[in-house]
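dumping these here so i dont lose them again. two proteins, back to back, each one seq then structure tokens. dont judge the mess
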Amino acid sequence: MLREIEAEAARQDRSKSWIVQKAWMISRKEIAKFPSANDVPGMEDDKEK
């Protein structure tokens, strides 16, 4: 993935940081839809017991 970011940064004549920041800004709403690692279907939360 780093090589891809480096290649894209070179292609756009931008820094790797700039590429990552823009990618995050574009994708963060979609990523927020993913369940967290602690969201296991069928498992009760300790607080609900």
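---- next one ----
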Amino acid sequence: MKIDQAIVDKTGRALIERGAFLDDFHIEYLAQKGVNGIYIQEGDEEDPEEINAEIAALEKNMPKYTRELIEKERVEDRSKVTISESVKKQVGEGVQYLFNNTNDDEHFAESTENVSKELMHAVLDNDAVAFDINMLKVSDEYTFKHSVDVATVAMIIGKNYGLVRDQIHDIGVAGLLHDLGKTKIPGAVLNKPAKLDENEFALMKQHSLFGFQILKDKQEFNEDIMRGVLQHHEKINGSGYPLGVGATKIHTYAKIISVADVYDALVTARPYKSAFTAREAIEMIMAMTGDLEMKAMHSFLSSVVLYPVDSVVKLSNGEYCKVVKNDPAYALRPTVVGMKTGRLYDLANDVKCTNLIIG
């Protein structure tokens, strides 16, 4: 079922956006919040071709004053990570080599450094402070794509978190290698197209420990990188694994990688689950205050460009709008201009827009 009306808190902040698909996670979440009933959408989905045609017509017939307002209010997005197709290919192949050659003690660290340098260039040398979450996805192969995406997002989060250059480099290495221990998990378990049973999940939960041990045996990775790998599934409230430690004993790298890891896992389809939309994933992360460190979460949210400037979105009042400005503090609520009415909607700051969301 598809939710037809946003679920909002007392301040008007959307807890679950209109159009989200209802699943067990949502039902449990709503029950915890005391929500006893919701509206759902019925009927056929909107035809994408019809939507595109409608937007094209609005673009063509936009009044002059609307175009002028858009130009006046338009603010370029913050510098975003850009990775060329050739670099994506090179990085993807590099990570694949690392995962397939964990016993290559002679070249493993060197190969890791070569891959991390490419990401360092994309993040630091280009002064990137944000990422367009629609532009990630380095490879179609889950393990390698996930590792590179997590490393890239973790480096951007780390930059906004306040880490210095050497730390951003190291967290990139830890992000690339955070799932290295999965090479020790039998393929039948790792690639099972269904929910793991209790014993299989217990084994899977050891992968971060296996990864830590692989790096420790090589004696070429510093303690910070190894702890980032070891603790990336630990939770602030102490309910994580493999050690079950709480906030004060979790390394900063692990706290940051955890946010990047959770996000990328949510938006990636797997044989046993569908992908959440980027917006749904962000909402879910915002609700994980018991699992994720707040500073790392806020650094992630300030890094996200969900609706790039010049993109077209549809508000819950039915109006198509052009995005003209993003607010780093409110990834879900940019400033937009109605293409038909020419109305300016400052979704983040205008109290008159409290009940409006992007549908």
